[in-house]
Every structure is written in C-alpha cells, then in structure tokens.
Design goal:
This protein is an alpha+beta fold. The protein contains eight helices and six strands; from the N terminus they run αββααβαβββαααα.
Length: 218
C-alpha cells in the first residue's frame, strides 16, 4: 500500500520504514516497521518555562490519541491488503515499574531513519528537533529500508542545565549505552508526579524539550 499518501492525507511529513533486529521484535511474524512523527505546536511548547501548562497536558493527550488513531488506521489498511500488522500504543507502560512500553518508539524511529536520540533522552528530527511524538506500526508487509540519519543533537547542555530535578547525566546517547546512564527515569517520573499534580492525571513536564534549540523557531 502507499503509506506515503496515507501520511500526507494526515498532515504527517516525517516517516520512514525499516527492518527490526531480533532483539526489538515483539511479534515473531512482524519484523518490519513503519515509524512516523507528529509535530507538536511551537506556541504550546514555548509556554513551558518552570513547568508544564494545562494547555501542554491537553496537547500531549490529544497528540497521543491522534498517534493511536493514525497507527490503528494504518494497520487496518495494511491488513486489508492481506498482510499482518499491529499498532503500538503511543504511551502505554507495560513494565511492573510503570516506566517502559512494549517497544521503544525511539529505537524504531532511529532504525527507520527519522533522526536520533538527544542528551535529554528525547527523539530529535532534523526539522522539528524533539518537538515531536512518535508512532509505530509493525508488519510483515515488505517495506523500503530508509537511509540512516545523523543525530541532530548538538550536545549544547541546555537540557541538562534546565532539568529541575537533575535527572539528566549529560552523557550522549550511544548504541551500547543503557538508558539509565543518560536519564534517571525514576527521579524524573517522581518529580513530575509530585510537583505537577495539578496539571493532569499523567506525569508530564516538557522543560528539557522546550529549551532544546534544535528545530526551535525564532
């Protein structure tokens, strides 16, 4: 199927595809992936200063719903062509500690050539920086292998300096580095949960995203 037209019809201009390594496969028969990024509003993100706003929380939830709907419809379209497909939830924890999803959208997006992972442990694209959220569909449909992209992170230290709880170590992302060496997930999560309770029913912050200069409009 022409998933390029599919994304164009939904105002999504950052997407790619690739083949997953064995360690990332969560369904035995679905070794191919289609990854896409939905752009966040600069106006909403720019309002984040000392912490998240209620507008940002609503934007975050709306974006997650749009990602889930888009991934679901893409999977349905692929299955209609006679292939197998599964949409991965945009934001769903499945681990006992509540921190990890079934599959890393960031890892898949990097394989699919969308960009790289920054010092704030967020995914960055060339055009929009980390002001995006990611969606993933797994399938057995043959897909093109997108070209690898350079990591847009410029290692400026802005995110590390701005983190209100000191959860970022400053170590740059590498293939062989564990997430815990870049980000203290528990410290980050607990700060969001305890400090921004009045924002909404999920832990959100966004400060490290708002200060990142990559993709930031002047």
């Amino acid at each position: 199927m022409d998933y390029k037209k599919f994304f164009g019809d939904r105002f999504i201009d950052v997407y790619g595809s690739g083949v997953l390594p064995d360690e990332l496969r969560i369904y035995e028969n679905l070794g191919n992936a289609i990854s896409f990024a939905v752009r966040l509003s600069d106006e909403v993100i720019d309002e984040i200063a000392d912490g998240p706003t209620k507008t940002y929380f609503h934007h975050y939830e709306t974006c997650n719903a749009y990602l889930d709907q888009t991934a679901f419809l893409l999977a349905q379209a692929i299955m209609r062509e006679g292939f197998r497909a599964a949409a991965i939830p945009a934001s769903q924890a499945v681990s006992g500690d509540g921190y990890k999803g079934a599959l890393s959208h960031k890892a898949v997006a990097r394989i699919c050539g969308l960009g790289g992972i920054g010092d704030n442990d967020l995914f960055l694209t060339d055009e929009y920086g980390c002001r995006v959220r990611l969606g993933t569909v797994l399938t057995d449909m043959p897909v093109e292998k997108s070209e690898a992209a350079e990591n847009p992170c410029i290692h400026c230290g802005a995110c590390i300096a701005a983190c209100p709880c000191g959860a970022l170590s400053g170590k740059p992302w590498r293939e062989d580095i564990a997430v815990d060496e870049i980000l203290d997930i528990r410290k980050c999560h607990m700060h969001m949960k305890e400090t921004y309770q009045n924002i909404g029913n999920k832990a959100v912050c966004g400060i490290c995203m708002s200060v990142c200069p990559v993709g930031k409009r002047g």
